[in-house]
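User: Predict the complex.
Assistant: Input components as received:
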Amino acid sequence: MSIRRATPRKTRPRAPGRGVPPALLLPALLGLAFLLVPLLALLLRAPWRSLPEQLTSPQVWEALRLSLVCATTATALSLVVGVPLAWLLARTDFPGRGLVRALVTLPLVLPPVVGGVALLLALGRNGVVGQWLDAWFGITLPFTTTGVVLAETFVAMPFLVISVEGTLRAADPRYEEAATTLGASRFTAFRRVTLPLIAPGVAAGAVLAWARALGEFGATITFAGNFPGRTQTMPLAVYLALQSDPAAAIALSLVLLAVSIAVLAGLRDRWMRAV
Amino acid sequence: MPRSAAWTRRLRRIGAPAAGALLALSACSAPGSEAGPGAGADGAGPAGTVTVFAAASLKESFTELGERFEKAHPGARVAFNFGGSDTLAAGIANGAPADVFAAAGPTPMKLVTDQGLTDGAPSTFARNRLEIATAPGNPHRIDSLQDLADPGLKVVLCDTTVPCGAAARTALTAGGVDVSPASYERDVKSALTKVRLKEADAAVVYRTDVRAAGDTVEGVEFPEAGRAVNDYPLAVLDNAPNPGAAEAFVRLVTSAEGRKVLGEAGFLAP
């Protein structure tokens, strides 16, 4: 899952030229077109004339603000618990580690709506854990912004864990061992040696997780519902606008597209190259 | 289901016998259903697959009617695509191959008629009334629409872009009730599910949904629902792949037998 290159950029093989067999080139171009044409269609059919009006409505900004805040919070949450989890999976040996690793990656393949249902059954007001949260602390999570953050974290964190774990496995553990032999505690070694070493992998994982959280739809609408300003993130706004006002849906989609491209482009230069 | 219907049309156009065999499998239809679309014209009765796009709230009653239709016309099959009326209408407008469209309100049907995609004017075949769905036993003692204004209650409504949400908005306005819902759900079944899971204390849904949910929820009627009764329009589509069978299905829905099935599900007569 981590974005790593086996070889540095300079020594990569030459770009496709005459030597490329058509049997590879044709499917490759087909694949490229398949990925790009829908995005192009979004641009072609965009209601450019009414766009300024569509985009300056408070609902759009509310949804965008909520999306950015929730995706960023979900990423931060994923970092706080996900990096230690990745370290546990990569650097320690305990019985059933393979199983734990498989379970951690489950949300990657699980349909997000199923994730949302599972979250409801676990953290809902009547859920396995949620009923105690409600009874003891008066905390209910569904239909709240916190619920959105949790739904997004559930779906996005595995991306970070897998990415960081991969980087950790590739990193040489002897640096840490050297640090501990010189008297550092294992936690100090992690903080002062390991973490700087794997920073690019952590960053790449965080970008993946953030992007996944930003686009989260199924788990969010299932667990947190849909209320403008509280739980209605951009993808939900796009979906519901599509029912009644396709032009507005396209306008909203363009915003999401622009934000995604801007973030990927901005972070690519800073982080990804080093990965 | 829409995909198999799309294949149906494309393959029929090609008319390849082998494709016909594949089609029989993909459309889950019995052998012999390739007798030709809408053989009703020459008196042999409806045959082939009739594709019905119907509102989510019609799921139980139309499934029942579909079974009766297939029993009455061996060789005919009904393929349903249940969903939000607006989504279905958008699908039809974008060329989804359907024979019949049954919507939960006039607005989505208008989207289709405005583009001249129906064969004749749609007719209202049923009406639906709103009810408040609560947990069994009505623990919060909700007796009226006004009770939903209690800020201590978690109330979910359908989003106003779908018919049940628009109707709920009309009823709330008529009653002068100011509800701040916990969520605007994307369709009526999602709203009901939140009550069934006890995440919400109440939802404004159709009485047919309350009835279909059986013992898992309790329905509360309220007078303002009379101001927001939804008409359900039905139409055969202009480019229906199987117009003969489509009309036969519409006849069944609007017959006394159809009325009875719909009435048992909680629908009101038109």
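Chain B has two domains: 2-127+232-264, 130-228.
Let me know if you want any component modeled separately.
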